[in-house]
Every structure is written in structure tokens, then in C-alpha cells.
């Protein structure tokens, strides 16, 4: 056995998650189901923060785990599994938002409806978390940048790559989000 394989074997013995990931990569459906159970909340949270709408977030979460089943072999362990999965979830949510926007623009002319208003945030009146309400009120692109940078810790270079925007645009959207939230805080 070569030294790389023995290091990986030793890591799996001491890291139950690594063993679970390895088993799922080899097609073990029970191991995959355990990964699903372990990460469902995190994935749904990422999708909900980016998409705001619960039904869309649930659909995106389901798509993340479908893609995970097909792409799990791509995970090499260069980063933590949770970090890699978080990136997959963010990319799926952003992709689904783009598809939704594209579909809406084909169905409705720009004179009929403001597309940014169609996917209005689903916020309950009794919700106490004001920051969550303010984040949900942000325009979609601004919200995505704010969530990815301020909450999820992505650098602007990473956000730019994920969203196909310039680094300067990512920084500008983040600044815009902070200004809007600060303004709303002043009106409370």
C-alpha cells in the first residue's frame, strides 16, 4: 500500500465523517442518507438565506442533494466537507434564482411586472428577527452578496466568481446592502 493510501485509511479510522463520505462515494445509500440527515439543516439554511422563499429553498435543497449524489466523487478532501457542500448549495441556489428570473422575463414583459417584486420575500409578521426581515427585503443580487460575504464568509473574489459579476460589483452590492439595512435600522 502506498503512503498516500495509508494516510487516507488512517484518517478514516479516526474521522467517522471521512469514513461516511468514503462509503457514500462508493455508492453506499445508507451512508449518503446519514450525510443527508447531518447536513439537511445547513443546506436548507443556505438556500433559504439566498432565496428567501421557503418553497424555492426546499426545491433548491432537494436539488443540492441530487447533485451531491452525482458529484460526491468530486470531493477530494482538500477542504472540509461542510465547506465544499456549502459552496455546492450556494451555487445551486444562485443558479435556480437565475433560472426563475429567466423564466419570469419570458412569461411577463417588463411593462407588466417588475421581476424583482415577483419573488418578494416571504416574511411572517410575527417574526422577531429584524435582521432576517431586513435581509429578506434586500434586492436579490444585493441580498446574495450580503449573505455570501457577511453571513457565510466568502471573499468578494469568490462571490464574483460564483455570481458572474466583477469583484468591484460585489463590493458595491455589499456596501449597498449595509447602507439599506442601516437606513431601515434608523426607522425602527
From TrEMBL:
Keyword Transcription regulation: yes
Gene3D superfamilies xref list: 1.10.1740.10, Winged helix-like DNA-binding domain superfamily/Winged helix DNA-binding domain
Record key words, sorted: Sigma factor, Transcription, Transcription regulation
RNA polymerase sigma factor 70 region 4 type domain location: 135-180
Residue stretches making up the RNA polymerase sigma-70 region domain: 35-101
Family: Belongs to the sigma-70 factor family. ECF subfamily.
PANTHER family named among the record's database cross-references: RNA POLYMERASE ECF-TYPE SIGMA FACTO, RNA POLYMERASE SIGMA-70 FACTOR ECF SUBFAMILY
Protein name per the record: RNA polymerase sigma factor
Organism encoding this protein: Pseudobowmanella zhangzhouensis
